Amino acid sequence: MVDRILELMKEKNLTPSQFADEIGIQRSGMSHLISGRNNPSLEFIMKVLKRFPEVKADYLLYGISESSQTAKETPGNENEFIPKISPTLFDQPEIPESKTEPKPQRPVKRERTERKIEKIVVFYDDKTFREYEPE
Question: Whole-structure pTM over 0.70, yes or no?
Answer without folding.
Answer: no
